[in-house]
TrEMBL record:
Pfam families: BPD_transp_2. GO terms for cellular component: plasma membrane. It comes from the Bacteria. One of its GO terms (biological process) is amino acid transport. Its main location: membrane. The gene is livH_1. InterPro entries: ABC_transp_permease (IPR001851), BCAA_transport_permease (IPR052157). It is found in: Cell membrane. Coiled coil: none annotated. GO terms for molecular function: transmembrane transporter activity. This is High-affinity branched-chain amino acid transport system permease protein LivH. It comes from Roseovarius litorisediminis.
Length: 343
């Protein structure tokens, strides 16, 4: 039972990333009808927003410390972060330590701006083009973004630690009546799951309970009728593209301490996230979230040694096997709208 609970926790952790990326993908497809293969690159850029802020906060200058000397008796040069000189050693060190959570605020305007530029500068020209054209141009855009990141940050992963207070592991088993140290789980992964739940809930509440969200949902169902009512639905859809980009970016920011950011991490998640969207149902926001967590849990269980000993390599293909079964039996996905992906 402890192994089962641990795999469920691992699945929720993976599923959180899948669900957040798939949610943004579905927002774009549901509003604009665009298959955006550059969405994984937005996840990557979000992670590098955390890297960038961490580097900015760690910028330092050298001073001579007369109280310290080298082996020749010369005063040592000491590096002091600018942030520590401005706010004091304690507060400055605390700000540096909390670089990843602070990157949430840092990344939101950046990701929304990138989303606007992508949509207005490129995507809008492909609304009425075949999905194959959309895939090709957005995939090319993803490669360009990937190579830009590689040029400026290098090819190696860049460790981006979580705040010290979230380092270490939580004894989850004691809450469920198990012996101590039976179910140990990292604090930051629990934080990531809680963060994903908040973002998903916020997006759904925004679409469900705000006037803007209700107009967007109406436009998703019948774009022409909403336009005939005198509403500039295109402008609202552009804003939704920016919001979708921000969701992907925030997912990347908080994932940076879990998986050190590297230039190809967007591609690693992109294909899996598209599978999640298709399984959940193209255009279905609840389907994307449900499928993300479902496939994350299935992938986690498939990685157990007991399962891999019976079915070698099943952990690498389980998501695709489930996708094939779903599409053969229900082409529209678990919660997809009728007619979508059924032609």
């Amino acid at each position: 039972m402890d192994a089962v609970i641990l795999q469920i926790l691992n699945g929720l952790d993976k599923g959180s990333a899948y669900a957040l990326i798939a949610l943004g993908l579905t927002l774009i497809f549901g509003t604009l009808g665009v298959v955006n293969f550059a969405h994984g690159a937005l996840f990557m850029i979000g992670a590098f927003c955390a890297v960038s802020l961490s580097k900015i906060l760690n910028l330092s200058f050298e001073t001579i410390d007369e109280t310290q000397t080298d082996f020749l008796g010369n005063p040592l040069k000491v590096k002091t972060a600018y942030i520590e000189s401005w706010f004091g050693p304690e507060l400055g060190a605390s700000i540096i330590d909390w670089a990843v959570p602070l990157a949430i605020l840092f990344s939101i305007p950046i990701m929304i701006g990138i989303g606007f530029i992508m949509e207005r500068g490129l995507i809008k020209h492909f609304y009425k083009r075949p999905h194959a054209d959309q895939i090709l141009v957005t995939f090319g855009l993803a490669i360009v973004m990937q190579e830009i990141i590689k040029h400026y940050y290098g090819a190696n992963p860049i460790p981006t630690p979580a705040p010290d207070v979230f380092k270490g592991s939580f004894d989850f088993g004691t809450l469920l009546g198990f012996d101590p140290n039976v179910i140990i789980y990292p604090y930051w992964r629990l934080v990531y799951f809680a963060f994903a739940a908040v973002i998903i809930g916020t997006v759904f509440a925004f679409l469900q309970f705000t006037t803007f969200g209700m107009v967007v949902r109406a436009g998703m169902a019948d774009r022409e009728t909403v336009g005939l009512l005198g509403i500039n639905i295109d402008k609202r859809f552009t804003i939704m593209f920016g919001i979708a980009a921000a969701v992907a970016g925030l997912a990347g920011v908080m994932y940076a301490p879990i998986n050190s950011p590297n230039y190809h991490m967007g591609m690693d998640f992109l294909v899996l996230s598209f599978v999640v969207v298709v399984v959940g149902g193209m255009g279905s926001l609840p389907g994307a979230v449900a499928a993300g967590f479902l496939l994350g849990i299935l992938e986690s269980f498939a990685s157990m040694n007991e399962i891999k000993s019976l079915l070698p390599g099943i952990d690498q293909i389980i998501i695709y096997v489930v996708a094939i079964i779903i599409l053969l039996t229900r082409p529209r996905g678990l919660m997809g709208r009728k007619g979508v992906m059924e032609d």
